[in-house]
Structure prediction request, 570 residues.
Amino acid sequence: MIKLVGILVVAVGFALRFNTLLVVMAAGIVTGLVAGMSFHEIMEQFGRFFVDNRYMTLPVVLIVPVVGLLERYGLQERAETLIRRARAATAGRVILLYTAVRQVSIALGVNIGGHPQMVRPLVAPMAEAAARQQAGALRTEGAAHAGHDELPEKTKEAIRAHASAGENIGNFFGEDVFIAVGAILLMKGFFDGLKIEVSVWAMALWGIPTALVAFAAMWWRTRVLDRRVAREVAEQAAVQRNEAKEDAR
Amino acid sequence: MNSVFSVELFYVIAGAVFASVAWRALRNPRQPRRWGSVIFWLLLAVIYLFGKALPPAAVGYGVLAMVALAALRQVEKPASEGASREERAVQAERLGEALFAPALLIPVTAVVGALLLSRIHFGEVWLLDKKQATLAALGIGGLIALGAGLRITGAKPAVPVAEGSRLLQAIGWALVLPQMLAALGGIFAQAGVGQVVAELVASALPTQYPFVAVAAYCVGMALFTMCMGNAFAAFPVITLGIGLPLIVQQHHGNVAIMAGIGMLSGYCGTLMTPMAANFNIVPAMLLELRDKNAVIRAQVPLALTILAANIAIMYLCVFRF
Prediction:
């Protein structure tokens, strides 16, 4: 039981909103100490795992220079222009379409997505542009005000968060359908170690029902998002109309 | 080791990127907490450049120093210094659709890398790192896209360095969170935390009912993944502790169905935990959200729905096929 003290440290640390790095390191040190390691040994472990897992930051570090460069030259603005031509686009539909592409492509073994390379430069700006277009349609003369061209901050945050969620859903619930992927190979290796015969094809096949459920759930959430965007944009437009009336007096 | 584009090569590039962040923090007159930020990024650069050559304990104490700097709020980003929206719109108008080409080169390279480049080898020397072919393809994609981007925009090489370092500073210390959590997971595993959790669950519930066994396994996978931040770490522990003894041995369930859906239940946990920082926290920082838990908040309804569906699917299928 005492070994669970690390989980307790994590839970309490997150609840009290301490710095996350500090919470994680403290939990590691406490768990190591109760398991009988010395402080020096724990530092050795942290160092070893940190170096072995350097690959985890590579997708971000190797991609941000080019994404930053393209954004500096208007990539996000261009993505918005593109979406303005698609009349039927809404934030939710843009995100759902990306989720579908992501899920199908990774199920075929092709990893084309990611937060730094797709969501930040393309998907999130397109979804925001679609929402802004919706907002523009609602605005009347009063909204011609300078500085009223933006979406409400909370709406923008919700759209970006859902774009990130779409990436994760597509990624997680598509990849297990492909047999050469890490998760399937890990399970195969685990059962091989126990001398239990399991077919990789069966494990991949039984990932399909959940993949369909995950996509349906995403469809539902993006519809909820679209309704929320419409509501918040309408509220903003109403406020702006009132302000415009005040100004006219 | 025996590859042209090995992951080690990309660690060196990443180390150089971190060193440039430290350099820019040192030279930027508007950099807040200058010395804390410089030391943080410099330590990170050293660990990436010389990681394998350094003694693990030295890296560990370096990481401890980085954590201390972050916890004392000595790692900060300068106030926004990007180009204005008008300026970007003018450039976007000038460059047109050509701007998409570099961005799309990254996924294209990933496809070509997976299908073609990963099979190329000259005798014993492979073109891509064999163990991390996807990552190597991504790195090459990043380099090709960078070259194309510089050509199309006509920007100086200093621009991507500056913009990349601005974005990395926006992410800040959260960038190393995934590695820290992997280290914590490793220490949890060595200390045997998983077995304790599995025994607790198995002894506290009436697992003679097949439905309870299935629910305990799926929820156990999700919960333990939330603690570890990683479904791969949870899978062996929960499968040995709950899945195999209860679902397979006691109730004669199908192993493949149990494992496949069990892993996906773990992913539901991944969607709900700040411990899975690279999927949930780093993107929130990357998209410059004020609430770093906003992505998790958006995912909780999805995760609970999918988890419930997983329990239903497993219960209906695992004892039948």
